[in-house]
Write a sequence for this structure.
């Protein structure tokens, strides 16, 4: 399944059999509704990751302390969304079957659906935590049910009520917010009450999906659908560290579109966030 990957994310060069965490990129943005370009995120993040250190002063940990394998990018059939989701599901399922933590780099947010399908097979009681600017709860977008604007609705189709927790949401149709009142737990604008949710979900298997446009676009402009407002880097990092107390069994980071930020600061932020996620979620025994 894995091709030899010449360029890896910073310090993530462990061999697959020894790895606790497995990174793989999904360069897919075919349902992007506004500005495409997230297909270049994983490649750009690998190249730019060498501008940061493996050591995190926030957590006093180093990537050298955990075994992370970077399997490179999946080869995907553009133009066939169903096949793309199936490829993601198959890859994630293999990683989960091998007892490792899948860490996916998108790509647009729809890629999360394929990974959640796979993780849900092993963990039927899976709960999903989403950090995002957008609710992504539309039933369809321009008649299409598979879109980055519908991804969390499709995930709700799988999990049902009370198992989708949304934070940072500040954009969506009125119908999406109305839907969330009865079916999801949605926190507008920030991470208020996250500590209560962490306590509530203790012991549950958790899939964590991070759409980077949850960040304020004044500091993170490199995304396809920027939304005014949002959280800053310290707030996001604190929230990630809070949920690291949970039983994280799968995760992803998505919606970096590096072409829209030629300064490189968005990519640098994405790399540092991924480093912190790897350190926060790595090195822990996961419940079966």
């Amino acid at each position: 399944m894995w091709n030899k990957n010449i360029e890896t994310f910073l310090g993530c060069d462990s061999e697959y059999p020894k790895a606790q965490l497995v990174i793989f990129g999904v360069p897919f943005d075919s349902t992007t509704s506004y500005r495409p370009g997230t297909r270049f995120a994983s490649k750009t993040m690998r190249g730019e990751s060498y501008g940061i250190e493996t050591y995190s002063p926030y957590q006093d940990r180093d990537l050298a302390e955990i075994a992370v394998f970077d399997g490179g990018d999946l080869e995907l059939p553009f133009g066939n969304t169903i096949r793309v989701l199936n490829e993601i599901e198959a890859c994630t399922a293999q990683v989960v079957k091998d007892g490792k933590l899948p860490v996916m780099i998108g790509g647009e947010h729809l890629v999360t659906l394929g990974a959640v399908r796979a993780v849900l097979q092993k963990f039927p009681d899976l709960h999903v935590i989403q950090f995002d600017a957008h609710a992504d709860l539309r039933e369809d977008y321009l008649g299409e049910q598979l879109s980055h604007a519908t991804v969390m609705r499709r995930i709700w189709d799988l999990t049902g009520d009370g198992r989708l927790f949304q934070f940072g949401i500040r954009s969506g149709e009125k119908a999406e917010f109305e839907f969330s009142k009865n079916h999801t737990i949605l926190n507008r604008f920030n991470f208020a009450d996250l500590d209560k949710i962490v306590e509530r979900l203790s012991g549950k298997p958790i899939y964590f999906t991070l759409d980077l446009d949850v960040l304020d676009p004044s500091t993170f402009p490199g995304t396809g659908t920027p939304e005014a407002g949002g959280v800053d880097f310290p707030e996001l990092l604190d929230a990630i560290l809070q949920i690291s107390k949970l039983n994280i069994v799968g995760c992803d980071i998505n919606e970096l579109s590096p072409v829209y930020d030629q300064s490189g600061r968005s990519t640098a932020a994405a790399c540092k966030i991924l480093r912190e996620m790897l350190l926060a979620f790595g090195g822990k025994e996961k419940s079966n």
